[in-house]
């Protein structure tokens, strides 16, 4: 039996309604926040009720070196000009051998921004792109 290291994720995939937008090597912002409302109960001074009110989800930021899959991202963003459709998405974390560590389903996904590479011959760094997406929550 081989043991797989759960912390050795090196890339992520993003799929929109089942169509892959390629591999990314950075993913930030997979998080949610539950807002809490405090209520005091009359005659009970021992504690304060902590009641959940609203769940919010942060913007997810995916980064990668420039690849031919960039055209898939551009096509998705351009499709918003003909009407906003909020699809579902899947982000999967993969190990070096391609096996899956974890997967997150996202509801009502929308691209927030895309930043392409800075092409400067005086600074020969890796050309990278950044895609930011928003969503209305997690799903299976």
UniProtKB/TrEMBL annotation:
Signal peptide: none annotated. InterPro entries: CHP02241 (IPR011747), Phage_T4_Gp19 (IPR010667). Pfam families: Phage_T4_gp19 (PF06841). NCBIfam families: conserved hypothetical phage tail region protein. This is Phage tail protein. It comes from Streptomyces lomondensis.
């Amino acid at each position: 039996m081989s043991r797989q290291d759960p912390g050795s994720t090196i890339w992520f995939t993003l799929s929109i309604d089942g169509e892959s937008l390629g591999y990314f090597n950075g993913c930030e912002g997979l998080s949610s926040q539950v807002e809490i409302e405090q209520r005091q109960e009359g005659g009970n001074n021992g504690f304060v009720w902590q009641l959940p009110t609203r769940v919010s989800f942060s913007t997810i930021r995916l980064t990668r070196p420039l690849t031919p899959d960039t055209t898939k991202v551009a096509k998705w963003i351009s499709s918003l000009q003909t009407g906003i459709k909020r699809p579902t998405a899947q982000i999967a974390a993969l190990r070096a051998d391609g096996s899956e560590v974890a997967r997150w389903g996202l509801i009502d996904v929308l691209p927030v921004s895309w930043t392409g590479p800075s092409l400067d011959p005086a600074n020969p760094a890796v050309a990278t792109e950044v895609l930011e997406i928003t969503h209305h929550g997690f799903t299976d």
